[in-house]
Amino acid sequence: MLINIQAISNGMGKVVYTKDKSVLPAIAEKRKLYQAAMEKLDKMESGKEGSEIFDKLKTLTAEAREANIKLAKLIEGDEWSDAASFYINHAEPRVNKVLEMGGRLCQTHGSRR
After folding, report:
1. Which domain holds residue 61?
2. Which end of the chain is more exposed for a tag (fewer CB within 10 A), N or C?
3. pTM given for the model
4. How high is the pLDDT of residue 113?
5. 47-84 burial, b if ≥16 CB within 10 A, otherwise e?
């Protein structure tokens, strides 16, 4: 899941900085993969600490998704300067928080073994 989220973010950055929208379909496929993984995790998570972290992860993921939607609108409108600024200041920092929380969730699972 985390690798797909990272790939989405990197792909969006690539679109912003190269102004090449041809990678957008591949990004859409990565979104489907991460969403499927989130659904599986939601069904699997049973420990109290893991559930709390997963709830935070879902909140952070929703925030990152909203930022990516705004970024996509800027890209769609060919507003490249605004897209670059938004990517750096809003979208990427939210993805980094998701990745950090996902890492914490992985640590929680690792400590149960």
Report:
1. 2-111
2. C
3. 0.87
4. 44
5. eeebeebbeebeebbebbbebbeebbebbeeeeeebbb
